[in-house]
Specification:
629 residues, binds fructose -6-phosphate, 3 domains, Glutamine Phosphoribosylpyrophosphate, subunit 1, domain 1, 37% helix, alpha/beta, single chain, 26 strands, 8-stranded antiparallel sheet, Rossmann fold
Length: 629
């Protein structure tokens, strides 16, 4: 969802910004743009659609070595994805341009006030309102400082600014902060102005923004890959902080007090290789295929002599109940874990969709633990739910993949999933890693409560999984291709599962619809006869998960019921079991079949989407990190 990059340094900034935007493509976008200073003149180039359109325009119109630039990929929130709504947006007087991720909730009110002062708006965006608001604040300050003696954006005006750069920088910072204090909602905003031609200002509130520290060059961006070829040293900005960068240095300040804030510099452990396709056709395929390593990495340091170590949680009490809150795929991982947390830790678990939870005045239990799951750690609804619970004094634990993300920093404790960067918009390896952490959590609490359960046996299975999955993946891919070609005719699909397979059925359906745009629904197998079975006919196939567990017999009956209505079924089974069906898909025998079934379903959706010619890594209308409600 919206990608931002800003650069000040010694390299030509425009190609660097374009390249950075490409590495943020995974976030999802529908238009793009950039701004730079050409001999102190503000230049803006924008275009609809893919970044290649912007690149073409830049090649045609900008032959520049400018060392300062800002860029943006936009995922539409206010207004259609057309050029006039693409970022950067400049103020009416041309004194500044901004790029913005987030939503300014009171934009209409601010727009009306500015319109009454004579401001004109050329786009439908809240961002243009914010640009003019900052410019207006700056104008007021310039008048107060008796500086505004020249026509706006005239060469003299810019010259005047250049003659007293420090004063202008101070005024620009004040105007920036003062405007942002008036804006309600969420923002990561980056500003470029010919009045402060050596500097970029950037601030955040409830939207991701971080800073990269190079040698004689500094970056701001929505995510690390944007500047990863140049530096791995990163500062994570907190809400209501802003940063001033130039080629000569940086300072982080509080938006309210303007006081400098000391920040820790983090070193990112992975390199560009981790965020590259590695010879695979798509990021999604690469991320599915690297899941054996993800399983292994996720276990590192967490197992010791048949017991689970989660030191991050040792200081928190064992809860009486757990409320899991998440969205999308992360929600499905949470729902899956309910079975294991209840079975192995004997803790009652409720699983909630974050966007529903936060607006229904929930009543929480005493000694309840709030467990939020988020790959990105920036999902607005999940973060909102976390904050709601934290304000009420509940302990919160985040399960996150992104180091230093908002959820990771705001929760009482964070369990990192260690899956590495997930670039494909559709989540795959992140879910698998969440499942590992959640299973470990169930065992961890069971051990802390000194319950007796086959923990050692489960841990043995878990440790064996990377090898089992590694071996199974090539055959799985072949099978997935085979079934995808056979079933590509379908307009709709049911995914059926019972017990731990139910949440996986929801995930299988989600993956198929988001990638191939085929309508799919996940159902508890036992629910089919309560209504959905009415839809079954030869054109409406099902994907059934029949694990070798206590539910097998019932799932088998469910499948036979579908078949007797002439429904075609792909049945995913474990070796050593069988049922009366043509399309059987065998996965190896293990006590944790979900860790094999999940990649199988991911591959099926992948092959289906690829066969149908869909944009696998960036499905239409989707964003990687949903930072708006
Ligand atoms: C689906 C998908 C989404 C995310 C959801 C939550 O493939 O990726 O459903 O799972 O938007 O995102 P996080 O986990 O970042 O909070």
């Amino acid at each position: 969802m919206c990608g931002i990059i800003g650069y000040c340094g010694h390299r030509p900034a425009v190609p660097l910004v374009l390249e950075g935007l490409k590495r943020l493509e995974y976030r999802g976008y529908d238009s793009a743009g950039l701004a730079f200073l050409q001999v102190s003149r503000l230049e803006i180039i924008r275009s609809e659609g893919k970044l290649s359109n912007l690149e073409e325009k830049v090649a045609e119109t900008a032959n520049t070595f400018a060392p300062i630039s800002i860029g943006h990929t936009r995922w539409a929130t206010h207004g259609l994805p057309v050029e006039k709504n693409a970022h950067p947006h400049k103020s009416n007087n041309g004194s500044l341009a901004i790029v913005h991720n987030g939503i300014i909730e009171n934009f209409q009110e601010l727009k009306d006030e500015l319109a009454a002062k004579g401001y004109v708006f050329y786009s439908e965006t809240d961002t243009e309102v914010l640009a003019n608001l900052i410019a207006d604040e700056l104008d007021i300050l310039l008048v107060q400082a008796h500086q505004k003696t020249f026509a706006q954006n005239s060469p003299e005006y810019v010259q005047n600014a250049q003659n007293s750069p420090l004063q202008y920088l101070e005024l620009a910072e004040k105007a920036f902060a003062s405007a942002l204090k008036k804006a309600h909602g969420a923002y990561a905003v980056v500003l470029l102005s010919p009045l402060i031609p050596q500097h970029i200002l950037a601030a955040r509130l409830s939207a991701p923004l971080l800073m990269g520290i190079g040698i004689g060059e500094y970056f701001v961006a929505s995510d690390v890959p944007a500047f990863l070829p140049y530096t791995r040293d990163v500062i994570f900005l907190d809400d209501r902080e802003y940063v001033v960068i130039s080629a000569g240095g940086y300072s982080v300040k509080n938006l309210f007090s303007a006081e400098c804030v000391q920040k820790e510099v983090h070193h990112i452990p992975w390199d560009l290789q981790g965020a590259a396709k590695d010879g695979y056709k798509h990021f999604m395929l690469k991320e599915i295929m690297e899941q054996p390593k993800v399983l292994q990495d996720c276990l590192v340091g967490r197992l010791q002599n048949d017991s689970v170590c989660l030191p991050e949680l040792d200081a928190l009490p064992v809860p009486d109940s757990i409320r899991i809150i998440a969205c999308g795929t992360s929600y499905n991982a949470g729902l899956w874990s309910q079975y294991y947390l209840e079975q192995f830790a004997k803790i009652p678990v409720t699983v909630e969709i974050a966007s529903e939870f936060r607006y229904r005045k929930p009543i929480l239990n005493k000694n309840e633990l709030i467990l939020v799951i988020s790959q990105s750690g920036e999902t607005a609804d999940t973060l909102g739910a976390l904050r709601l619970c934290r304000e009420q004094g509940y302990p919160t634990v985040g399960i996150c993949n992104v180091l230093g993300s908002s959820v990771a920093r705001e929760a009482s404790a964070c369990l990192y999933t260690q899956a590495g960067p997930e670039i494909s918009v559709a989540s795959t390896k992140a879910m698998l890693s969440q499942m590992v952490v959640l299973l470990l959590l169930a065992l961890y609490y069971g051990q802390r409560k000194q319950l007796s359960a086959p923990y050692a046996e489960i841990l043995q299975e878990l440790k064996a999984l990377p090898g089992v999955l590694e071996k199974a993946l090539p055959t799985m891919r072949e099978k997935a291709k085979h079934f995808a070609y056979q079933y590509a005719f379908a307009r709709s699909f049911f995914y059926l599962g019972r017990g731990t397979a139910y949440a996986l059925a929801l995930e299988g359906a989600l993956k198929l619809k988001e990638l191939s745009y085929i309508h799919a629904e996940g159902y508890a197998t036992g629910e089919m006869k309560h209504g959905p079975i009415a839809l079954i006919d030869p054109e409406f196939p099902s994907f059934a998960l029949a694990f070798d567990d206590e539910n097998f017999g019932k799932v088998r009956s469910g499948i036979l019921e579908v078949k007797s209505r002439q429904g075609r079924v792909i049945a995913l089974l474990q070796e050593g079991t069988s049922l009366e069906n043509d399309d059987l898909w065998y996965i190896p025998q293990t006590k944790l079949p979900e860790f094999l079934a999940l990649p199988a379903m991911q591959l099926f959706s992948y092959e289906m989407a690829d066969y149908l010619g869909k944009d696998v890594d960036q499905p239409r209308n989707l964003a990687k990190s949903v930072t708006v409600e």
